[in-house]
Specification:
binds 5-O-phosphono-beta-D-ribofuranosylamine; two-stranded antiparallel sheet; Rossmann fold; phosphoribosylglycinamide formyltransferase activity; 6 helices; transferase; globular; Formyl_transf_N_sf
Amino acid sequence: LRIAVFASGQGSNFQAIIDAVQNGKLDVTIELLVCDKPAAPVVERARKASVDTFLFAPKEYPSREAYEAEIIAELERRGVELIVLAGYMRIITSVLVEPFYGRMINIHPALLPAFPGVNAIQQALAYGVKLTGVTVHYVDGGMDSGPIIAQRVVEVADEDTEDSLAVRIHAAEQALLPGVIQRIAQGRVTLDGRHVRVSSS
Ligand code: GRF
């Protein structure tokens, strides 16, 4: 399976994908990193792993649709079959969602449908939930609203700060995401309306 990863920041999830491929646990080709922040640490991770990058500055385009059209052309040129959004901090339009519906997934640092949008870890802590976690879901036209593929629970401790909780959330993300991609690569994930089935063999 040929995949592209979209990321804007640290790239710890991108790194987890690279590591899983290198360890033989994930049978995909990382065709491309797409990044809107040329100075982000994730770009250096791609360089070290010899992954090609498509870097763009949103300000240089008249609209989201304009840069997404360029991205789509690049993805099609490379035969990308799955898009993984891993900390890509931009709103996606129908230019990307429509051609890739069912072939684009996102990792979110909360148990959706609780705490969608930005600052999910902070939102969960402020609300006072005792359990939070991470979600991998298909991307639809809404904000973190698409069909859920997999979730993992993280307990909130009384003494947690945003930083301490974030450490465990990120560890849970990195533990979950490569395995979900592997199941998709193996053809074990089927989407039926809002319901996603992951078969065991
Ligand atoms: C992750 O928490 C992801 O769920 C969120 O942004 C963060 C990205 O982290 N949407 P990283 O860039 O993979 O380290």
